[in-house]
């Protein structure tokens, strides 16, 4: 008998574990529990997350596997009148835009600019 088989390693030195069927199903069920993730469950059981994904795929069609919802679940939402008041508040952040004229000139304009004066400035810069 090979010592590699006794020690549970293969040629590359990796452990070759044999997981009992019941434990695999327990790990898969834990990965489907609300609030859990495959990576959390894998770390808890000291298993590679890819292995858990493989087991989930294997037991997906099994009647004993937990049902996974296929459609997105909706959450009830309540809209109150107070939200309207929040939406109409004026932002305290200064609103500015930047106008780049053919890579030669760059003009930064705030929200309170005189439109006619801006048009005259842009006309002059475009002629240069």
Strands, helices and their partners?
Layout lengths: L2 H5 L13 H11 L6 H8 L3 H10 L22 H7 L8 E6 L3 E6 L4 H13 L1
Antiparallel strand pairs: 1-2
Helix pairs in contact: 2-4, 3-4
Keywords summarizing the entry:
single chain, 128 residues, mainly alpha, two-stranded antiparallel sheet, 42% helix, 9% strand, disordered N terminus
Structural overview:
This protein is mostly helical and 128 residues long. A two-stranded antiparallel ribbon has the order 1-2. The protein is 42% helix and 9% strand. The protein is built from 6 helices and 2 strands; from the N terminus they run H-H-H-H-H-E-E-H.
Q: What fraction of the residues are assigned to beta strands by DSSP?
A: 5-15%
Number of H- or I-type helical stretches = 6
Strand order within the widest beta sheet: 1-2
Shape: elongated
How many beta strands in the DSSP annotation?
2
**Rg for CA atoms:** 32 Å
Q: What is the makeup of the main sheet?
A: 2 strands, antiparallel
N-end to C-end Cα span: 89 Å
Which percent range fits the helix content? 40-55%
> Which parts are unreliable, with pLDDT below 50 for 5 consecutive residues or more?
1-7
What is the chain-wise order of helices and strands? HHHHHEEH
Structural class: mainly alpha
Mean pLDDT over all positions: 76
């Amino acid at each position: 008998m090979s010592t590699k088989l006794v020690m549970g390693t293969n040629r590359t030195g990796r452990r070759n574990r044999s997981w009992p069927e019941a434990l695999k199903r327990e790990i898969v069920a834990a990965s489907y529990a609300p609030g859990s993730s495959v990576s959390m469950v894998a770390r808890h059981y000291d298993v590679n997350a890819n292995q858990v994904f493989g087991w989930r795929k294997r037991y997906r069609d099994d009647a004993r596997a937990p049902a996974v919802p296929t459609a997105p679940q909706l959450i009830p939402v309540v809209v109150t009148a107070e939200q309207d008041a929040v939406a109409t508040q004026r932002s305290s952040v200064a609103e500015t835009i930047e106008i780049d004229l053919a890579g030669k000139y760059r003009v930064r304009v705030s929200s309170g600019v005189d439109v006619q004066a801006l048009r005259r400035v842009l006309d002059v810069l475009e002629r240069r």
